[in-house]
## 1
Amino acid sequence: MLDTLKDRFGRHPQRHEGISWDEVEASLKQHPEALDSLMAMEESGGEPDVIGRDPNTGCILICDCSAETPAKRRSLCYDDEALRKRKRNPPKGSASEQATQMGISLMSEDEYYHLQELGEFDLKTSSWIATPPQIRARGGALFCEKRYGRTFTFHNGADSYYAARGWRGILRLPA
């Protein structure tokens, strides 16, 4: 996994200006459990890469950088509450539960918009993002995509699922 991440890091320097590979590798060696999360991201089609640093915590941010939402993380409703409430034709699972199992988080809206500044992502698919509690309490959830050269945030019922909607995750790696 380290070799794969190092290679991708080297091929996309515009994603992580000001962060060296030595810094990333040292942090991964201090937090080897993160490699399990990165492997799960990779195996599900996420193509994880470093996209910057959290300005509040200093954590190195590693997220799914696949061109489209990861193929093995689509056709899912937003969370397990929505999955339990779905009476007919339930999906195979939920985005938030998969993220928890992988040891990562759904991207926030700000993180998703930052990712879109680094390249072209989700031109044919869409991705669930972390949804504010006040929206989720009313049964909704948020997702994002890029169309017409612009990034959009939309809403849907949390229990909805589509073949072209999945989720992108983010790993916060202590520096």
## 2
Amino acid sequence: MNKPEILSPAGDFECLQAALDFGADAVFLAGKMFGMRSSSKNFDRDDLKKACDLAHSMGKKIHVTCNILPKNSELEALPSFLEFAQDIGVDALIIADPGVLEMAKRYAPKVAIHISTQAGVTNYATANALYNLGASRVVMAREVPLSDIAEIRAKTPKELEIECFVHGAMCVSFSGRCLISSYLTGRDANHGDCAQPCRWKYHLYEEKREGQFFPVEEFDGGTYLYNSRDMCMIEHIPELVAAGVSSFKIEGRAKSSYYTAVTTNAYRHAVDDFYAEGENFKLKPWIKEELEKISHREYSTGFYFGYEPGQTTDNGGYIRHYDAAAFCEESIDDTTSVISQRNKFCVGDTLDILPPGGVPYNVKCISLTNEDGEQVESAPHPKQILTMKSDLPVPAGSVLRRKREQ
């Protein structure tokens, strides 16, 4: 089997650059319309073309999400968008709706069709039917166990690729089709505008005791009935490959470039190590540790190995051990770099460096100089440009991180 693709998310151009620099084979993103993440900045037409040109110059691919469940009023603008996607060289369109699929075949016949997880593909009959309709790839519903994926692989044409999520947020609703947000807030989850009410805390009220609430569990913060754990399959690369997965998809188009860089780098190294080492493969501890350095909920393996407990019932928050302190814009010499600040840090701090495609290491911040040439003791301003002296080199494109005090 060919080495699986690493498919990374991008909600803006900074995330796209991080995905490409840290080892993605392909990036999935959206235009300003038709994509399932309205909270992301997303890409206007000029940026979509620039994204394709940049990715192709690096030998990478761009997959554009066209996976909303459109209303009648939205269909009129779709042909123009599909024709534009083909004209700029988009490699694949990610589609959930049969009508959109038919329109894509008509208006963008040269662009590969990938069937979104929103379509809820759970069996080989559906996968084969979609292949016969023109799909070159199906993105499996996240509810499908690895054993079923292996059977789907065995009972579908070898030309049909199978894409699976390997990391990121999970949805309490089947394949992300949910109306809770629409009912409670008027924000349509199936148009990428989910308010995530499944993450909220809930209390029970008794009918005849107006104003009194009764926690379902006995703790002060409320009860998180629907709050799904995040998925993490970094320890199960061999099983995913054995099941026949063609593409490892990382969730997170609404997340930061720091998240994109770290997750992409971790899965890139894990997959490359597995293919280099074969039966001697053993996940390096630093790779697993990397995924603890991003903001995340408690991890699980989703539904891949059956129905393990998938909810975090005692909190609705994130686990955060590290902050992204800065990104390196330019490496001047072995001790000097130009950085763009993201979170406050100070002279004397130890910073954890993740270089593009590399292994993390620590440096000490020896001095900071602002754009006016003044020595400063800290970097307190978001996206401030500073010159940093350190005891070791910091390559251009590196992520600089600071461990939180526990």
